[in-house]
């Protein structure tokens, strides 16, 4: 186990009806909020009205920033900062999934920086303070509700980079599983695949003697595997939504990575699919992950896959090691299939291999330090196999 | 899953050598500390000298309170408060296990109360502020390094009660597994049994649909079961000490109980053994727990024990349900036996049953609301079986 620092200061109110805590949480930090949201699904579901009513009843003033993009842009962050400065906002209140929360984190941090917001993305040490953030989560996937990351895009520069700062942990996150009932099957499936990938990237890893962490990750994986397919089929199954929601936070809030380190190869490879073909991130991960598993299965890694197969899927430990590993990979694919995800590149409309080389060059940079070395040629081969 | 609030603000520096962070942590909160410790083992191991040297090098002044009892007394808390007030202490720095940390928490909270310290124990709402606490853990067991409880005893009143306040979470805890190398085999075994019991009390519980939490608890139990016996036999096995240390914090920092609730019957029963016969708490739990499991095994509970047996010990799921449950209980006993613990009351020197009735009356109060109803007569029978 490697040495580590642990710190997750976000407070969570979890469960049906916990939205009622919002005024109390806000009042701890001020009396004027900026509501941040995306395309307006929160208006269709009635959540927006509920929040606004709660704020009004409690004499909390609000402004709003809508239209946050699925990959939140730095220009949107700057719009939010301008509102905060002009209107004297005390608290940033994102309502939505990871993109909305990331945008709010960007706003909260850029508020205190006297210059273009992109500067703090390029140089996180310029983040010296942040407005308090309170999140209302409506999509379980990215874990942004309980972590210190925000991914911000710059259209002009064609860049998508992280803000990474202890100062942007949400102060409070309200996690009401019923607020995810309206998430469509495809987004539920992609979100679950995203969570699973967050865990896989830490689980399949060269750091030794992390028994505690490995067993915890198996617990999280089992939860995804059990409840992902249920939530896809029964969108208003409370237990499925609750177990998935809590898992999404713990899959990437830093806890499981305490004592481990290493690259995230599947993410590095998938990012190219999203960038070149606009593939939904979680779906891209569901396609790529089993092929990365198969490609990296060798005498050095087989025991990792065996442990996974036995502990997560309950595969008979008396079988041949490669048999267990291959069954584990097949069962992983089956989980994604059970959630209705298409599992080849061709099936999602990628009909030629034109960019595979170019994408692989970029992906290879992100794979440096991963548990199995993956060169550009390896990644081209993975794309070919997944074609 | 029940609704819950989650909040664990303590920051942890984990790993060999992390003591070097101490001056940085202290300086965040002030420049004068009260070192709190117990019987002086930290002087024998050299830890005391290291801490003092670090403080001196960094111009941090210190006072000290030694001799904290295994069950810290309110009179000792008051001694600490007096020093803090007289000497202008900024930070309370316990070095030790749960008793020492609990005492420090009592001091930190009573510092701001203008009256007898016992008042705040009797009425936790009187805790309105607390001095910052930074802990250096030397014994993995109670989880006090990452929770908001302190158990304080009052000799005069013959009472042992909790302070329970968000304000007494340690700000930082330094968890260096090598600092537990000197913990004797018996204390290691008892500490591991204590951790396991913290998990069992939440795991065997009537709340439904806590898949996430149940799988996490199985992860923690597996870690105890693997590494407890190793740490007993190889006291300086880093991986064993590290995995146990991190497990001790997570077994009782509140995380696993999020979404669950209920009484802690084994603790309620064991507390009487400690009170009447001065049995080491963790050892008492190791004796009592398997008998409580056996006694509560019935058609309503068998599936819980079956799940435990299959998921934690890998028992063949095709066996008869009661066979699995009984094997699981026997394997639990075996873990305690493997750590060298004696497992009947007679074996630890309790040679008559004089107090069983009296103890059972008291224990029954603490069992109210547990997953199986346990009356006074049930508890007498459990004592008899464990005799």
UniProtKB/TrEMBL annotation, chains A, B:
Statement: the UniProt record of this protein carries the keyword Ribonucleoprotein: no
Protein name (Swiss-Prot/TrEMBL):
Iron-containing alcohol dehydrogenase
Q: Which Pfam families match?
A: ADH_Fe_C, Fe-ADH
Annotated Alcohol dehydrogenase iron-type/glycerol dehydrogenase GldA domain residues: 9-177
Residues of the Fe-containing alcohol dehydrogenase-like C-terminal domain = 188-387
Keywords of the record, alphabetical order, are: Oxidoreductase
Under InterPro entries, the record lists:
ADH_Fe/GldA, ADH_Fe_C, ADH_Fe_CS, BDH-like
- Does the UniProt entry include the keyword Oxidoreductase? yes
């Amino acid at each position: 186990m490697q040495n580590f620092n642990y710190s997750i200061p976000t407070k969570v109110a979890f469960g049906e009806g916990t939205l009622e805590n919002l005024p109390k949480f806000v009042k701890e930090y001020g009396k004027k909020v900026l509501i941040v949201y995306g395309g307006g699904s929160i208006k269709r579901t009635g959540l927006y009205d509920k929040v606004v009513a709660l704020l009004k009843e409690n004499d909390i003033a609000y402004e709003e920033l809508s239209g946050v993009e699925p990959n939140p842009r730095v220009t949107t962050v700057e719009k939010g900062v301008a509102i905060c400065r002009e209107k004297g906002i005390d608290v940033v209140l994102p309502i939505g999934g990871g993109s909305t929360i990331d945008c709010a984190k960007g706003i909260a941090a850029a508020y205190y920086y006297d210059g273009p917001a992109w500067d703090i993305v390029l140089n996180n040490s310029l983040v010296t303070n942040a407005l308090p953030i309170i999140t209302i989560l409506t999509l379980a996937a990215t874990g942004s509700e309980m972590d210190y990351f925000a991914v911000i895009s710059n259209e002009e520069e064609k860049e998508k980079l992280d803000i990474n700062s202890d100062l942007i942990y949400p102060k409070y996150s309200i996690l009401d599983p019923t607020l995810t009932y309206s998430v469509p099957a495809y987004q539920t499936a992609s979100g679950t695949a995203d969570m699973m990938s967050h865990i896989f990237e830490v689980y399949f890893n060269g750091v030794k003697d992390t028994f505690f962490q490995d067993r915890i990750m198996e617990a999280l994986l089992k939860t995804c595997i059990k409840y992902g397919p249920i939530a896809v089929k029964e969108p208003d199954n409370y237990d499925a939504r609750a177990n998935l929601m809590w898992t999404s936070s713990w899959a990437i809030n830093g806890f499981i990575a305490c004592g481990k380190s290493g690259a995230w190869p599947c993410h590095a490879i998938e990012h190219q699919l999203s960038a070149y073909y606009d593939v939904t991130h979680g779906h891209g991960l569901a396609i790529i992950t089993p092929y990365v598993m198969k490609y990296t299965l060798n005498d050095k890694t087989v025991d990792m896959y065996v442990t996974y197969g036995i502990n997560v899927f309950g595969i008979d430990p008396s079988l041949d090691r490669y048999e267990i590993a291959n069954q584990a990979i097949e069962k992983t694919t089956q989980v994604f299939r059970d959630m209705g995800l298409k599992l080849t590149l061709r099936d999602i409309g990628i009909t030629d291999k034109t960019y595979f080389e170019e994408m692989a060059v970029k992906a290879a940079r992100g794979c440096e330090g991963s548990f199995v070395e993956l060169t550009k040629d390896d990644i081209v081969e993975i794309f070919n196999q997944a074609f």
